[in-house]
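Beta-fructofuranosidase
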Amino acid sequence: MAVSSRCLLLFISLLLGYGVLQLEATADNQPYRTSYHFQPPKNWMNGPMLYKGIYHLFFQYNPKAAVWGNIVWGHSTSTDLVNWTPHEAAIYPSQPSDINGCWSGSTTILPEGRPVILYTGIDPNNHQVQNFAMPKNLSDPFLREWVKSQDNPLMAPNSYNKINSSSFRDPTTGWLGRDGYWRVIIGSKINQKGLAILYKSKDFVHWKEAKNPLYSSKESGMWECPDFYPVLIKSPLGIDTSIDGPNTKHVLKVSLDDTKHDYYKIGSYNQNKDIFISDTGPFHKNSRLRYDYGKFYASKTFFEGNSKHRRILWGWVNESSSVEDDIKKGWSGVQAIPRSIWLDNSGKQLVQWPIKEIEMLRLKEVNLPKQVLKGGSVLEVSGVTAAQADVIITFEISELSKAEVLDSSWTDPQLLCSRKGASVKGGIGPFGLLVLASKGLQEYTAVFYRIFKSHNKYVVLMCSDQSRSSFNHENDETTYGAFVDVDPVHEKLSLRSLIDHSIVESFGGEGKACITARVYPTLATDSEAHLYAFNNGTGNVGISTLSAWSMKKAQIN
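Structure:
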């Protein structure tokens, strides 16, 4: 079984944290601190695994400050992926091979049930090398102590392959080939050519670089936090990382350092040649397939066997506030809600949905009756704690004749959303939700759809518009967007948003498109936050269902 870090260390490796000088923030006056998203009590974080019924979240963490630096592997455990108990750091600098930092990596569970960690260390020359650690006491389900190999480092960049020693990091979860050899990939680059360097080992200790990388793409820059795993065709069930067969496809995900976005490819794995063959060509900085079209980076999946048979995705959500504000808050970075992830029936993209366990936090369900949302109208959803909520709305479109014509040059969904934000009236749309909104709508974050007509089909655009999210314009107020593969003629349009004070995770088309935003309203905080459904188009849209819940605070110590 295989599971990884800043690439979410997954054993459940959680996003590793980063941290500078710490200024203590009091528990009071923390309107932006999340209530049910994982984050350490303070400072900078970033990073999964299931062992003896316990989920482990490892994460890059700066114990000294709320900015990047002084990186160790933070460690928390959970029985339900919602409530978390902290432990002492699992790995911290103590050997020459990691004396300047313990960076990202992954956890793999070997066949005899023994978990091991591969991670990137920074040596005295500031070179990136790969190290190995194992639990000191396997009878301890919390795995509170880890022992490093005296043979570290196990892998180092070779001068003959032209790999720069500062571009060789983030080993993946291992997978076992039919030939009995373990394999991992490491993110790298040569000039601007991104690489997934492949290593092989019989014993998980002695590693040899393969003749060719698993995959590479020109002009894509440094590949961080790679992830490689199989998915079943036409099934939402997850499978172990080492499985390969006729009913599977493979996913290669990379975090592009140049764009700070996570991109993935679906394709096939040729075990004989040890190469990945993409269905859609190489990675590039404008690749269409992304896990999340907002703030979501350094992600990692892990396979959960037992009775659930699911693959779970973790991702790191960084701040949109300034470094100065992060230091004042005393913390920076949160984990997105873990998501189940599987291959869509089309075979052309992945689908994501928040894990079922998050629903245990739901309180006070509010349901609105089926109704028409007329063009230009705003409808408040009352009775929920709008700063800490889960809302699902389903729309039905009947006036598609009013859809705007999609210009052939409008190929970039983010740019299109920024040009046609929530305040720009259209034909069918914008319609959706106004979250973390002030009572007079001076502040709001809009998550919405627009529908366009293109040739003989309709195109659905999903946007997350942060342009009016806060009067504090020092924040990053980028608007995000994605095209959603939904046919509004024959399908209803669903939208789900998880709202948690300063984070809004939205899932369009039942998880076909995901957009995560960080926002810091000055008016719409805590009890002053409101939630609305809205339609700023000329055409009417129908609300088929709307359900909203206040969310309890998770136990994250």
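The mean pLDDT is 91.
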